[in-house]
Amino acid sequence: MTSIHLANLGKTFGSFTALRNMNLEIADGEFVALLGPSGCGKSTTMNMISGMIEPSEGEILFGERDMRGVPMSRRGVGFVFQNYAIFTHMTVYENLAYGLCATGVGKAERERRVNDMAEFLHLTALLKKPAAGLSVNILQRLAIGRSAIMEPAIFLLDEPLSNVDAAFRAVMRTELKHLQREFRQTMVYVTHDQLEAMTMADRIAVMDHGKLLQVGTPIDVYNNPSNVFVAGFLGSPGMNLIKGRSVASGEAMCIDLGEAGLSAPLPGALFRGLPEGKAVVYGFRPEHCELTDDDGLRLPVNFVERIGARTILHMGQGGHSIKGVFDNRVPVRQGDIVTLAIDPSNIRLFDADTGAAIV
Ligand code: ATP
After folding, report:
1. Domain 4-232 class in CATH
2. 15 CB less than 6 Å from ligand 1?
3. Which of 12, 13, 188 to mutate to test the pocket of ligand 1 (most atoms within 8 A of CB)?
């Protein structure tokens, strides 16, 4: 096992900055997901860790060892890409055994490891089959096995499940997590799929526009996003984010959501320290509200989205879409006016100018 230390890491391509000032510690045996939208710099980070490209600035350490100038083949990393790298003219067995042969692992040891890995990844029945005839799903499972069998200290996976079908992806999420636990590798996993990151990773590193925005356990990042981008990016649907302004109301501070066309200011005892007139973004997750007959946000229902176990109500006016997640029996129809009560402990406030979390 090996820890990874990224210090002030940056990468420019010509005049374009793909990554700037990235600092991240990944512990021995930890599973960290780099999560963010397309083009945010995830693969660039990964390619620098693997040694495929050199950083423009900053350092990469594996344990205590500086990786500057160390070629990919000497870094002890396993790498799995979105597109499986499989020798289609070989059998499944030969593919799994390939790296072991190349590094001089003896026959008995080779057979044991191939059989163990095949069993682990449910490939035993296919060992004698040529890879050429296998489905995309199985090929990607084989690609993972082929890399994992080398027991690299660091295992890098870049969108390994984006070409497989949804049902298989769900199975592989569990298997990859088991694999990492079994082999106790330090794993870095690039994905734009929050479900993959949330379900597998010990910690998530959320990135956007070449910047690392937040690192934490999945639940911590979900519950306490450090800024507006992370709040909206995580969750399906993401956090409701409404622009407003703090106003004095008797002893307490309230948030006037006038910009959203919402008439009712919200009680803001939580935000006593806020200066009056501060432009804020008021956030709450769609699952943290309920329908009430008392006071609350009165909103028209624009669309009722029934998705099996859950119903998502799309509400709002003045171009703002506020979503609430309810169970599938919620007795609401399109055009109804509902009143939302928002769980005060789950309200999040962000600075409208910087996007940074206030509460
Ligand atoms: P995706 O999931 O789409 O691959 P990503 O988060 O992995 O996204 P990167 O591949 O790291 O993003 O790319 C980050 C930015 O750097 C993008 O704008 C991309 O176009 C740019 N980029 C990456 N490699 C190069 C290169 N070799 N030359 C010029 N620009 C590059």
Report:
1. alpha beta
2. no
3. 13
